[in-house]
Amino acid sequence: ENLTADLDALARDLDAEHVFHSWSAQGQPPQLVIASGRGTRVWDHAGNEYLDFSSQLVNVNIGHQHPAVIAAIREQAELLATVAPSAVNLARGEAAKRIVARAPSAHNKVFFTNGGADANENAIRMARLHTGRDTVLSTYRSYHGNTGAAIVATGDWRRIPNRFARGHVHFFGPFPYRSEFWSETPEQETERALQHLRRVIESEGPASIAAILLETVPGTAGVIVPPPGYLAGVRELCDRHGIVLILDEVMAGFGRTGRWFAFDGYDVTPDLITFAKGVNSGYVPAGGVIISDEIAADFDERVFPGGLTYSGHPLAMASIVATIDAMESEGIVDHAREVGAEAIAPALTELAEKHRVIGEVRGEGVFWALDLVADPETREPLPAAEMGRIKGALVERGLLPFTADNRIHVVPPCVVTADEVAQAAEIYDEVLATVAV
Ligand code: PLP
Question: What start and end residues bound the annotated signal peptide (predicted)?
Answer without folding.
Answer: none
